[in-house]
Amino acid sequence: MLEYPLHAANSQFTCKLQFIGQNFSIFKRISGIALKENISIPFSGIYYDPRKCGISVSRNKRYVRKPNYHLKVMGGTDVETGEHPWTVAIYMNDVYCCVGTLISNKHVITAAHCFLREGVKPSLGKCRPKQAITEEEALQHTKIMYGSKCLKRKKFSNCFNSKPMKTVGIIRAQYGRFFRQGCFGGDIALLELEHEINEKDANYICLASRILLNEKFYSIQSVGWGSNRSFSGDSGAGLMVQLHNGRWLLLGIVSYGSSCDKLLQKRAQPLAQVYTNVKMYRGEIDKFTEYFLPWEQV
């Protein structure tokens, strides 16, 4: 089991970021994105309440440590307990696989390519359905770990006093379309948990499609479980923005990008960090999570 703590980094990359499904690119250094004031739609789904989403358990100022590029996301700092309670770890056959994000108290969103079979490397536009774990197999072999900032309390001093992770299985998975279309676009996976998560240390994040926004500028962050390779190794992690009132909003999912190892060793030029634009899949997400606005209900 990995022993690394959760780390966060502001999106101040020296390369190009792109959203799959929308021609939206951000170049050079990024400190913000045009968003809007947080005006929640006054409706609650079965598992999602817009009045509760995106609220960190801990509102304390982050304790900034000197970056350790052997352990953390690029330029990252340690995450406080409860700071990003929606960030989960996805395990396949008891082996750490990907980062995921709680989007309700019963659903997780991550990248579809996380479900490629062992030994198969993702190849944009060239993969086949047989190279992926079936959705039925995923139900048997996938576990979600949540509720702590550390995957294991060991070695790292900032993990000694952390809460132990909790584990839950999944009863439904949806990601097959990505592989049927040759791993080109739609790198999104939706998972339904065995039971609802109501613990205060595991709140869910807000979704952009469920918030009305006025234009303002705020910084963007991504998170990862103790690796400085967020450009290529934190698949499925959320790209998040914090609004003026402190609440967090999910914009995208890490799909693929430049290799941080090669960038740090100056063996490659920065290319792009590509995210799946969550807002483009609003209908699919709402249907899977049973979230319908009053005028959409039959």
Automatic annotation (TrEMBL):
Q: Domain named Peptidase S1: which ranges?
A: 73-298
**InterPro entries under this entry?**
Peptidase_S1_PA (IPR009003), Peptidase_S1_PA_chymotrypsin (IPR043504), Trypsin_dom (IPR001254), TRYPSIN_HIS (IPR018114)
Its keywords, alphabetically, are: Disulfide bond
What molecular function terms (GO) are annotated for this protein?
serine-type endopeptidase activity
SUPFAM superfamilies from the UniProt entry? Trypsin-like serine proteases (SSF50494)
Q: Which SMART domains match?
A: Tryp_SPc
Q: Name one GO biological process term.
A: proteolysis
Which domain of life does the UniProt lineage start with? Eukaryota
Q: What is this protein called?
A: Peptidase S1 domain-containing protein
